[in-house]
Each structure stands twice: as structure tokens, then as C-alpha cells.
From TrEMBL:
Organism: Chengkuizengella marina
Sites where the protein binds Zn(2+): H129, H133, H139
GO molecular function: metalloendopeptidase activity; RNA endonuclease activity; zinc ion binding
GO cellular component: cytoplasm
Compartment(s) where it occurs, according to its Swiss-Prot or TrEMBL record: Cytoplasm
InterPro entries, sorted: MetalPrtase_cat_dom_sf_prd, YbeY, YbeY_CS
Keywords recorded for this protein, A-Z: Cytoplasm, Endonuclease, Hydrolase, Metal-binding, Nuclease, Ribosome biogenesis, rRNA processing, Zinc
EC number: 3.1.-.-
Main enzyme class: hydrolase
Annotated gene: ybeY
Family according to the record: Belongs to the endoribonuclease YbeY family.
Cofactor: Zn(2+)
Protein name stated in the entry: Endoribonuclease YbeY
Length: 163
């Protein structure tokens, strides 16, 4: 079994090539291996700044666009409502939904230009960042930020996405 990537492109600013999707699938496998996660599904959605701005405001209370958002499905936070299904609903025991990653290609393009690397590398960086959030990593303090960013760079390096 391997990690699965489902994606949708909900923006018209930048063409998302099949090559990019293949590279993101490879990044997902490398990231999963590095964290001993061999199965599950991640949904990736490409949006523009307007869409991610709305999501950021709605779900995080921050009234500005951002580069990437992650919505983990495996979190069981204190205030989350438990979902009950009817008895005849059958779960797919094989595939666990890890969560959703949403990337603003508008912001990714701007950041790639600011940092002086390719848009492909920036989108890869944001995707790995989002994936690590889905599996529990965070960067609330300097130590956890350093650990998370080191993991990201190692995964990107292994995939050949260097600066």
C-alpha cells in the first residue's frame, strides 16, 4: 500500500502540469517514508489568493491570503464534534483520509520569485509543509519550527528540488 494523492485545480492563473503532479506524488511518498506512514490519502487543491483568503478568514480568523492551509482529518481536538454514521455505512478500512492541503498558486508564484527558485520547488515546499501539518507537526516555537523546516528541506533534497 502507498500514500495516495487526489488533487483538484480550482484556479486559472497557472497551468498545473502532469509532471508537477507526478513530482508531488513522489514528494508524498518520500515524506511518508520519512515519517513511517505507508498508507492514507491526501487531497490537494490549488486555488488563487481570493479563495485562500476566504478559507483563512473562515477557518483561522485571519483576514488575509496565505500560501498554504492544512486541514487534518486525524485530529480529535477538544471542541470537535464526533460524527456518527448509520449502521449500514461501510468504511474503507484500507485508505485513511489524512486531510486536505490547499495551496495558493498566486502566493506560491510571488514567493518563488522573492526566494529566487522555481515555482515547482515552491509548490513542492508548500505541499510538504502542509503534509507535515496533517500528521501533527507544527511550528509554534523556535525548536519545533527548526525541526519541521529541516524535515521539509531533507524531503525536498531527496526529491531533487534544491534551491
Amino acid at each position: 500500500m502507498k500514500l495516495q494523492l487526489a488533487f483538484s485545480n480550482d484556479q486559472n492563473e497557472i497551468e498545473i502540469s502532469e509532471e508537477w503532479i507526478q513530482q508531488l506524488e513522489e514528494l508524498l511518498q518520500i515524506a511518508g517514508q520519512s515519517e513511517n506512514i505507508s498508507s492514507g490519502e491526501v487531497t490537494l487543491t490549488f486555488v488563487d489568493d481570493k479563495s485562500i483568503h476566504q478559507l483563512n478568514k473562515q477557518y483561522r480568523g485571519i483576514d488575509t491570503p496565505t500560501d498554504v492551509l492544512s486541514f487534518a482529518m486525524q485530529d480529535s481536538g477538544f471542541e470537535e464534534t464526533e460524527i456518527f454514521y448509520e449502521d449500514d455505512f461501510e468504511f474503507d478500512e484500507v485508505t485513511t483520509m489524512l486531510g486536505d492541503v490547499v495551496i495558493s498558486v498566486t502566493t506560491a508564484k510571488r514567493q518563488s520569485e522573492e526566494y529566487g527558485h522555481s515555482l515547482q520547488r515552491e509548490i513542492g515546499f508548500l505541499f510538504v509543509h502542509g503534509f507535515l501539518h496533517l500528521i501533527g507537526y507544527d511550528h509554534q516555537d523556535e525548536q519545533s519550527e527548526k525541526e519541521m523546516f529541516n524535515k521539509q528541506e531533507q524531503i525536498l533534497l531527496e526529491a531533487g528540488l534544491t534551491r
